[in-house]
Design goal:
The structure is a single chain. The protein has 182 residues and is an alpha+beta fold. It has a single domain (14-169), classed as Transposase IS200-like (Alpha-Beta Plaits, 2-Layer Sandwich), CATH 3.30.70.1290. The protein has five helices and four strands. It has a four-stranded antiparallel sheet, with helices on both faces. Helix 1 runs antiparallel to helix 2. The radius of gyration is 16 Å and the shape is globular. The protein starts with 13 loop residues before the first strand and ends in a 13-residue tail after the last helix. Residues 9-148 form the Transposase IS200-like domain. Pfam families: Y1_Tnp. This is Transposase. One of its GO terms (molecular function) is sequence-specific DNA binding.
Length: 182
């Protein structure tokens, strides 16, 4: 079965998740999470990405997204490519990163196994977009995203997790200016 999932209907919102190769816990450092946030902001401002929900976990990211401009598969391709390059650089140049050699070795190992890469791979290959074509499915994925840090034991309330849109849905400021689902 092909793992090349597609964004079928550009007029619908989609739930996407993508993970670091080998589920490495990269996003335990603020500077790495900041690369993701800055890249999402850029895509929102310059590519027409609409972010309705997000959660940055230690090894993966969940989003509910849409776009009325550029096709979502193009935005996600560019986002993952750019963040891969920037995160590799950030890891390599971070003097505080005690896991540097090990993480880069694993990412190079993953890249050499995958003919689509240049001997380096940060993200797993797929996004598995799920079209949110019913209110039930939309609410289910929104709850899933916001409950993820609670289920992982990071916080006891979804809105307490800094790297999530749950605060915005609770009426508090968040790290990204998102579009709320009403």
């Amino acid at each position: 079965m092909s793992r090349k999932y597609k964004f079928r209907d550009q007029d619908k919102l989609h739930f996407v998740s993508f993970s670091v190769v080998y589920w490495l816990d990269v996003f335990i450092r603020d500077e790495y999470r900041q690369v993701l946030l800055d890249s999402l902001r850029y895509c929102m401002q310059h590519k027409g990405l609409e972010v309705y929900a997000y959660c940055i976990m230690t090894s993966h990211v969940h989003l509910i997204i849409g776009s009325q401009q550029e096709p979502l598969q193009n935005i996600m391709r560019d986002f993952k490519s750019y963040t891969s390059t920037q995160l590799k650089k950030a890891i390599r140049e971070n003097p505080q990163e005690s896991r540097k050699e090990w993480m880069l070795w694993l990412m190079e190992r993953a890249g050499k196994k995958n003919g689509n890469n240049n001997a380096f791979q940060f993200w797993q290959q797929h996004n598995h977009p799920i079209e949110l074509n019913t209110n039930f499915l939309l609410q289910q994925k929104l709850d899933y995203i916001h409950e993820n840090p609670v289920k992982a034991g990071f916080v006891s309330l979804p809105e307490a997790y800094t790297y999530s849109s749950a605060a915005a849905y609770a009426g508090e400021p968040g790290l990204l200016d998102i579009m709320l689902i009403e």
